[in-house]
Each structure stands twice: as C-alpha cells, then as structure tokens.
Amino acid sequence: MAVDQVAPAARPPFFYDPRVRAIFFQVLVLALVILGGAYLVNNTLANLARQGIASGFGFLDTTAGFGISMSLVEYSEESTYGRVFLVGFLNTILVSVVGVFFATVLGFLIGVARLSRNWVVSKMANAYIETLRNIPLLLQLFFWYFAVLRTLPSPRNSVELFGSFFLNNRGLTSPSPIPEAGFSTVVISFAVAIVAAFFVARWARKRQEATGQQFPRFWAGLGIIIGLPLLAAIVTGFPLSWSVPELRGFNFVNGMVLIPEFVALVVALSTYTAAFIAEIVRAGITSVSHGQTEAAFALGLRRSPTLRLVIIPQALRVIIPPLTSQYLNLTKNSSLAAAIAYPDIVLVFAGTVLMQTGQAVEIISITMATYLALSLLISGFMNWYNQKMALVER
Amino acid sequence: MSMNPHGQESSASGSQMAISDEVAIQLNNVHKWYGQFHVLKDINLTVHRGERIVICGPSGSGKSTLIRCINRLEEHQKGQIIVDNIELTGDLKHIELVRREVGMLFQHFNLFPHLTVMENCTLAPIWVRKMPKADAEETAMKYLERVKIPEQAQKFPGQLSGGQQQRVAIARSLCMNPRVMLFDEPTSALDPEMIAEVLDVMVGLAESGMTMLCVTHEMGFARKVANRVIFMDGGEIIEQNDPEQFFNNPKSDRTKLFLSQILHH
Asked: What are the domain boundaries of chain A?
C-alpha cells in the first residue's frame, strides 16, 4: 500500500479551490452591479413619472428661444435644442483645439527654456512654471476675464492696434476678409503649394539617399507654401478686401469680434496647461542620457542634427503619454467656461437647456457621452502617434 | 622630452608596427579646472601617427578627462591642444573638423537605442560626410564584418550583448574613417567573457596602423599592442615609457604602488 507516498495533489475542499472562488466572486460582483443599475433606473423612471416629466429625446426638436453670444454655425432664437447642442459642442471643440495648440507651442518653448544654460532664461521659465501650475485654474480664469479683459475700456475708448484692431471690454474687433473674384485661384495655389512642398521634401530625401547632398527642406517648403499663393495673389491683383470695423454709436459695425470670454478661456487654459507641458518636455529631454549627446558629438554631428536625429526621437517616447493626459485635462477643463459664460456645451446645453426643459437625465447623459467620446478620440489619436514614435529597441 | 616616445628598441610586438614622424596630436602645457579642482596639471604630450598609447592610473587621476579634451567633449582652460594640425579653440569650425577625424569609444557604448545597428553606423556618414545612403551602408557592412557581427545589422542595440554593442560602437566610429581613435575604458562595463572579443577587435585595429589613445586597465592589452604606456596621478603625467620598461622597471614610487595594486590580487 502506498501509505507513505505523497498524495497526488488531491482536489482541495470545494470552497478552497481558487477556480471555484474566482467564478463565485465574479458572479457576485456582476449580480450586484446589475441589481444596483436596475434599482437606479427603476427609481429614476418612477420619480420622473411622479413629477410628470416625460423622458426621451423628443425635446431636442423643440425651439430653444434664447440667444447664444458665439456660434460657429447658423443659430437664432428659433433654432432647436438640438441646434444648441451642436453650437455648444463646436464651441467646446474650438476652445480645446486652439488651447491645445497654444499650450503645446508655449509648453515646448518654456520646457526647452527651462533647460537653457542661460541663467536668466532658465530661472524665468522656472518662475513661470511654479507660478502658473500652483494657482487654481478657475482663479486664473477669473483673473484673465474679470481683472484683465473686463477692465478694458468701452468700445468708444478702444485700445487701437495697427489702426484696424480694436481691443475693448466687448472683445477683440478685427477686420474680416471678404473674398472677391479670383480669390479661389489663391486658395487653389495654396493647396498646390502644400502638395508641391511635400513632393520637394520627398525628392530631397531621395536625392540625399542617392547622392548624399543635403537640401534645406524646411526653408524650401516654407518658401513654396508662402511664395506660391503670394505670386497668385499678385497675378490676380490681390482679390481680397477687408471689412474694416467702424465705430457707430456705442459699438463697432463690420469686421469680426473675438468675444472676451473666448479670449480669456483660451489664454487661461493654454498658459496653465503649458506649465505642465513644460515640465513634461523638460523631463523628456533630461531622460535621454548625456552619453547620447556625447556620442553624437564625437561622431562629428552638430548641435541641431544631434537634437533632431538623436535626442528628440528618444525624448518623444517619454513625452507623448503624459502629454496625452494634459490634452485630455485641457479639454475637460474647458468646461470651466461656464464660470465666465463662454457658451460651451456645459453652459448652453447642460446649463440653459437643462433649466428650461428639466430633462436632467437625458441632457447630462448626452453631455457626459460627448466628453467621453471626445476624450477617447484624443487618447486614441495620441496612442496611435505614440505607437508610431515608440522605441522599437528590442 | 627625456622619455623615448617611439619605443623601437624594446616593446616586442609594438616595434613591428610603423610609427611615422608625423605628429598626430600635440598637447602643450594643458591645464583644466572643474571649478576649484585642478584636474589636468601642465600636460605635455606628443602623439605620432601610428602610435598606440595606453593611459592608466587610479580613478580620478584625470586620464578620462585628458582624452575627452582631445575631441573637445571637455574644454581645457589653458595651454594648446593641436589635433591633425588643427588647434582646438572655441572655434566651432575647428571643433567640428577635429571631431570628424577623431573616433571615440565610451565605457557604456552610447549606441543610439532608437536606431538599428546599421542606422547607428550610417547616421554620421550620411549627415556629416554627406555620403549617399547606399555607399554608407556598404561601408557600414564592411566594418560590421570586420568586427564580426554583420548578421546583426538589422537588430536594435538593446537586442545585443554588451560585447556586441561595444563592437558595433567600434564599427560606428570606423565608418567615419577616423585618423585617431580614443578609447575611454571600453571594457570596464563588460562581463569578463566579453572583454576578449572587444580587445581582439582593438588589437586588429592597432595592427592596421590606427593611431590609438586608450584609457584602460587591461594590462595584457597594454603589453601586447601599446608602444607607450602613460601613468597619470593627481592630474599629472607621472611616468611614460615603453611597456616593457614600464611594467618591469617602473621609476616612480607611485607607479610601483599602482602596479602592485592592479597586478597582484
């Protein structure tokens, strides 16, 4: 008899089997979530029914009846709530895109300045970062809106810039372009120039591979993109006139206006986020060991190709993931717009429309889904870019 | 100079390799400070084309700093450094010209991790020498074969062993067709079994007549290929001699102490 033999891994008692336990707890969690969800839905429906609020999305076709101070698409008081959603959504996207652009440019500049060997430049960048990122964003937004832009003079006493830009407490009034006959030629030549610049760059790369000769791709491309439309404009006799703003009574007519809410929001969001991006950029560049620079120098590479070919490609893989979350932060922080009455999706849709219709569940769900979709879109794009730039290495 | 810089009489293998009268590197009264710390004190050194010089000394003696001054990774504050008849001053043009002609190897290889072995080798020829890509790749392949790893050309540095990485680094330097090679402790970061493969390549390089300055503690290598060994301590050149004299008959007490520490343990 094999009494003294070790028992061949007997099955553990039922409840001590890890597989049984795993299944049990998963079923338990799922059941709780479903029960909780059902309770919430049921409760909400019962409450809505008791208050006599119809649920559903029919309200989106109802006339809104209120005005919006800034709209990228046609909008009037007769437009529907659905239209309000679109206006608010586009305004949110506009402020996010413009904010991300300026935050990135400013952030990279300050991040590099922070690493400068020039003592003054480096300390100034440091002071910027430490000030901006340690003051609440809402406060900064109030600063730009109430302390800076709202205290500007009235339209009659506008600050005049270059004779045709007027800065006052109703925003920045500037001339608006009016295309005339022949303007399409300029637009087409611009498109052609972009394609041409692309092909020149490709030709330059091929030629360098074949003959080793280098070509100033960047400057040539820039020259083509600026030069060709300029030439077309000269040939067609500058087919663009300007509607110059004019002071009539208490306000300007003609021209176009950037409302102060928009300016304040973009300035606050981009300067605030730039401080974080600057730190990310600095960390990215310092994460590349100094040995890399030395090796490149020892091979005879100059400073700028060293940065472009050796340092930046390695820094980017460290920079991109946290940069993504800064872009997401900026987009979501744009909802602070409500505090200064910039007509973004939260203010006009989750605010005014909600007050007027009382369709809280639907409206908040739509707004949340919108932000979620927007954020997923941004992080999807950045993940794709990250994968493209990521170090293959092994 | 009282020393015998050529070492024709003694160093057995060293004397077989040709050393020309042409001066490759000339250092006159070179001083360097890190803040208050005097790293290099009045260094005078003449290196002829084809010489293989090993520099040794305790850590902190300034030997790495010395060779890093020769391609201006470090700046000297006083004295003259002339490489290939070009004086190293603040002039960026001069620095660039010198760096093209001087290859350097580092303790930690410093390969570019985001580029393949082949791209590591062709980067500088393409961007500095303005070589066509096909030619640069051909040259790179030639040197990768010489360091015996042509089959790794499409891999990334992270996929290679330390010894292989250092051999890629040698190939990368050779692709620029340098006239002088500097080695900053090239085997110190390697596992013992990988040191030999790197030293073999370096011996081959010496035999091809390359002018070499080598900071290393590989005394076997020094005996085998060096025609001159320099001992540094406290930022000064204490002693220099041909390997046989240096190892068998050191003159200064500090050299004796150093040799006893590294040879007998």
From this structure: 2-50, 81-175+258-389, 177-243
